[in-house]
Design goal:
This protein starts with a strand and ends with a helix. The strands form two sheets. Strands 3-2-1-4-5-12 form a six-stranded parallel β-sheet, sandwiched between helices. Strands 6-11-10-7-8-9 form a six-stranded parallel β-sheet, sandwiched between helices. The protein has about 240 residues and is α/β, with parallel strands linked by helices. It has helices spanning about 10-15, 50-60, 75-85, 115-120, 170-180, 200-205, 230-240, and strands at about 5, 25-30, 40-45, 65, 90-95, 105-110, 125-130, 145-150, 160-165, 185-190, 210-215, 225.
Amino acid sequence: MKRVLLLGGVTEALAIARTLGPQHIYSLAGVGRVPTDLTCQVRVGGYGGAEGLAQFIHDKGVDLLLDATHPYAAQISQNAATASRLSGIPCWALRRPAWQAQTGDDWREVSDWAELIQALQPFRRPLFTLGREPLQHLQEIPPEQFWTLRALDVYPGNERCEVIGARGPFLIDDERELFERRQIDVLISKNSGSTATEPKLEVARERGVPVIVLTRPVLPGVDREFLSREETLDALAAFVQ
């Protein structure tokens, strides 16, 4: 029977994992909660680069590597593509489409933290939805700014930054209340393409709030690429039968 190694990271990955039987493996980096109600095996932690992942594939007799990591987890995706070549098995990837700016949006794309800080200079009440990265820069917050940082879990902030621990999906009315209560004047976001976190973009559009968008990284080529959970599940069903 064929064995699949699913590299998780996005919401769709857990839905795929729930369809996998006990011979398959769901792999997580360890950020966020680890599901305990799956039939498949669950592995938490890294592999030591592409070579370590290739060795794991060999040791476990994996027949297919499925990359369903976050669109911004470029290093993991690169390791997956390399490991598949080293081990001689196919690598598939679930890569949901990026959000597209709509009429009324004011999107400003930046490629790194230095560009982001430059783009933030005119603003006073930013809302960061980048995960934990801004936590490394709390001592750099200008005195005229107050940051609201939303991450999966609560972390210590400081006198000019409050960290909100929250997990999607987010409701648009709750996002409206957050923008209003915090008087958010700029939103900072990755272009994850997730429907679970898209309401924040709708509220920014409604309120005329600019959105600073971190450029998506270029990901490696793979044997097959899917845009949705449904496409991926159909292909998996045909592969493992």
